[in-house]
């Protein structure tokens, strides 16, 4: 994935021409069903990005590439879409399993999937209690329907 981040690209013209060919061949071999003839697009892609978008971060550049250069570099853009949709780590998954184990204990083993999902979302989106507006929550709860208190 490093080869697509233009911040890592060499500045010299000769080095830039040869840069990333080996890595691109490995990626195109692995994703050969999704991309084809990618090596022809690679040189043009590097030239445009290096000359026009050198000082733009990859996070800002990607949406522009998808919008304006999909017809010019369809295989490169497909590969970028695949690569940048792969998570960099499994931390979020591990956090999810941990939260699930805290919620669905032996005493609550009959929770259905919908309820478990609801409580997990509440657990992920929870705010610090010092930030929570209890007065506003009470007003919303009270205005939802007629209640006898």
Automatic annotation (TrEMBL):
Residues 69-120 form the HAT C-terminal dimerisation domain. InterPro entries: HATC_C_dom (IPR008906), RNaseH-like_sf (IPR012337). Coiled coil: none annotated. It comes from the Eukaryota. GO terms for molecular function: protein dimerization activity. This is Zinc finger protein 862-like. It comes from Rhizophagus clarus.
């Amino acid at each position: 994935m490093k080869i697509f981040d233009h911040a890592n690209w060499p500045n010299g013209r000769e080095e830039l021409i040869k840069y990333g060919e080996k890595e691109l061949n490995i990626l195109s071999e692995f994703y050969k069903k999704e991309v084809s003839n990618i090596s022809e697009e690679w040189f043009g892609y590097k030239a445009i990005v290096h000359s026009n978008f050198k000082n733009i971060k990859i996070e800002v550049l990607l949406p522009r590439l998808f919008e304006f250069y999909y017809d010019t570099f369809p295989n490169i853009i497909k590969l970028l879409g695949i690569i940048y949709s792969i998570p960099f780590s499994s931390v979020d998954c591990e956090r999810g399993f941990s939260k699930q184990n805290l919620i669905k204990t032996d005493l609550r083993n009959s929770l259905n999937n919908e309820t478990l999902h609801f409580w997990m979302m509440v657990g992920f989106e929870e705010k610090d209690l010092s930030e929570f507006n209890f007065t506003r929550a009470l007003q919303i709860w009270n205005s939802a329907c007629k209640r006898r208190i």
